[in-house]
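Memo subject: From amino acid sequence to discrete backbone structure tokens
Action wanted: Derive the backbone structure tokens from the amino acid sequence.
How to read it: Take the token row as a discrete description of the fold.
Attached in line: The record itself begins immediately under this heading.
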Amino acid sequence: MDNGFSILLERFSAAVEAGNGSALADLFAHDGVYYDTFYGKFEGREAITHMLEDLFWGDASAFLWDMLDPVFDSDRQMGYARWVFSYTSTMEDNAGKRVAFNGMSHLILKNGLIQNYQEVFSAGLALVQLDMSPARTTKILQRMVHRHLDDPEWARHVV
């Protein structure tokens, strides 16, 4: 396992927990992409800063993010880590609710910076803890399904 990758993950988590968008964005290549399961695709450092400071921290507080069991393939410049993530919602409909879930991150690096970040987790775990209305839950999950239907890797599975 590459120690540099572990350090990158520690800095990533610390930036999210602190709400420091520029610190998170600095871990990405200038044209790097952060694909967030709930908020969608953010390309470039300015967009990533906005995502963290205005969206994440606009809808929640008290973030905790523990990256666990990191694995890095230096030949492919690709790494994975499983994680546990939590926050307290500040959204009007569910303010004060604490939400926790686990998942997996996939990162592709270029010159030591994140070129692409994606994650996989059961969004339903978070939505149920937030007591989202069925209509709102369906809307969010449908958006997630449509993203996958447009993914070339899914093409032969959804013919």
Notes: The radius of gyration is 16 Å. The mean pLDDT is 94.
